[in-house]
Amino acid sequence: MGTEGHNTRVIAGRYRLEARLGRGGMGVVWRATDQLLGRGVAVKELPFDETLSAADARRQRDRTLREARAVAQLSHPHIIVVHDVVEDDERPYIVMELIEGGSLADRIAGRGPVGAVEAARIAVDLLGALRAAHAAGVLHRDLKPDNVLLEAGTDRVVLTDFGIAQVAGAPTLTENGSFVGSPEYTAPERMSGARTGPESDLWSLGALMCAALSGESPFHRDSLGGILHAVVVGDIQPPAQAAPLLPVVQGLLERDPDRRLDADRAERMLRAFLDTGRTPQAPPPGFAPVERDAPRGRPQEFSDREPPVSPADGPGPDRQDEPFLRQPTRRVLVAALLVAAMAGAGVSAAALLMDEGGGDGGRTPKSSAPKTPTAGPSARSTRTPSTPAPTSVNGSASP
């Protein structure tokens, strides 16, 4: 059991919790000291639901610890390092490296959006992190500016908060029929419950790039119903600031996950932009992703992933003549209609649309590439030295 001190608490006889860094939907993060090794760490205290029976609480703890241990096996320079997973007084805690620096959301709020060069650099680093996680069978499922840390002094980009990650072949943190994540950054196939896979994280990256460049997600609306409508059926309008990186943003925000730009192709296009100042419409043969980013071993498969699209369905996201909806299944069409009807009425459609567990593997709504913004490209990226307040995993509360 944790011991109390002067404004401190020691868990597992080793980690002294000293100051709260942030609170989110998946727990509280503390600045702490590892008394055994004498180093600073971040400790995430996972929530405890007192309404659960003892058996259900134990099952929840077991699932949490199993997933945390799986994520701890990831090793990548742009993924948060998990040092330890412990239990104290039957409550799980995750011990991670302490990143001295703010989140991308903090950066946007404090200094405004970033330029195209900086957005491309951040996206390249995140693509490497996602590729490593996906190859190990781990989906992040909550990629957003709050969960991307920028280390002070080095500008190292760190993907954090795998608190709602899904691990291939293992139960998820949430029960079937519930939804977790941030709607503005959630792929339409997850909204409709049709499927989830690595492609969903890439959609989230496309929305994150728009937020980094303009200050907010292109799917930001004043109500949940409005967000759902924008994600599932609304016209996709990338911000004018995305013009220099538009081929990548368009490819990532393709509603059909089978036609969405994959991580390797997106990274090659972004590396070409960083080298030449221009983003090609298709991945160039050079600028290959850095092989050290990929973990060893064969990628794991996700059980709810659809078979690849047939050749008859046409080429990938470079094709521009695709109709907005192409033979959607009844489930997805009904979901889209419900979103449209409920958005104006201000009714929460989450219970009807956000069903992770009951996906039928149906096809998601198809769309042409997002509309090209009419304004010109943004100014070149500028960065000024700063020392943001320390933060760590999920340092900002989830919306």
Automatic annotation (TrEMBL):
GO molecular function annotations of the record: ATP binding; protein serine/threonine kinase activity
Domain Protein kinase: 15-274
UniProtKB keywords: ATP-binding, Kinase, Membrane, Nucleotide-binding, Serine/threonine-protein kinase, Transferase, Transmembrane, Transmembrane helix
Low complexity biased stretches: 377-392
Enzyme class at the top of the EC tree: transferase
Membrane-crossing residue ranges in chain numbering: 332-353
UniProt xrefs under Pfam families: Pkinase
EC number: 2.7.11.1
Biased composition range(s): Basic and acidic residues: 290-307
Entry binding sites for ATP: 44
PROSITE patterns membership: PROTEIN_KINASE_ATP, PROTEIN_KINASE_DOM, PROTEIN_KINASE_ST
Disordered: annotated span: 273-324, 353-399
Protein name: non-specific serine/threonine protein kinase
Record lineage: Bacteria, Bacillati, Actinomycetota, Actinomycetes, Kitasatosporales
